[in-house]
Amino acid sequence: MHTTIQPNILYFGTSVVLISTRNENGTANLAPMSSAWWLNRSCMLGMSAKSQTVHNLQREHECVLNLPSTDLIPAIERLTLLTGRNPVPESKASNGYRFDADKFGVAGLTPVTSQLVRAPRVRECPVQLEAELVRIHPFEEPSSLVAIEARITRVHVDERLLMDGHPNYIDPAKWKPMIMNFCEYFGLGEQLSVSRLAPVFGPKAKE
Questions:
Q1: Rounded CA gap, 44 and 39, in Å?
Q2: Cβ contacts of residue 13 below 8 Å, gap of 6+?
Q3: pTM confidence score
């Protein structure tokens, strides 16, 4: 039996992403978000145009998309309700946000120099994706939400996540991403079956 409802959110489960960008004064900003989806070498990010991250992206045209594993939930929590915007936008202030210039320090995370972009990577994140801005799309007008299209230019992965015998593939059994499921943190369960929907390897690769 199905029923019709009006939920406040439709977070059916997406990866948490820690986005690092450069502020106008050259310092680093770090912001967690969870409205992200991936296609080929590109990513679409859903964010508020009022955020410091979006302001930095509009100016710098680059960022790093750091993907935390489930053991970094405490670090993500320390970043909750912080913003790099000063003064804090009224809409965020009313929701309890406060300004903090040292996001890495507050979270207890370590900045690492990137190779192709000026924004730092997060050492503790097992997956770090350097990216360049393609374009920003207005979303749900007249709200402040935007969809940010980014192209991945370099991929850094903890070698412990790699598939045995395949140095350019991540083993999904080893990767434990942090998932935002209806605004609550979850991990992944065990693999249920082999998928034929979008196989990673073609017939020759399996031989």
A1: 8
A2: 179, 180, 181, 182, 186
A3: 0.91
Q: Which two tokens stand for residue 28?
A: 């680093």
Contact by Cβ (8 Å): 73, 178: yes
Candidate from 107-116, 143-152, 179-188, 194-203 with smallest mean pLDDT: 194-203
Cα(154)–Cα(142) distance, integer angstroms? 34
Please report which confidence band the pLDDT of residue 206 belongs to, taking 50, 70 and 90 as the band edges. very low
Question: Does the pLDDT of residue 203 top 80, yes or no?
Answer: no
Q: What is the pLDDT of residue 189?
A: 84
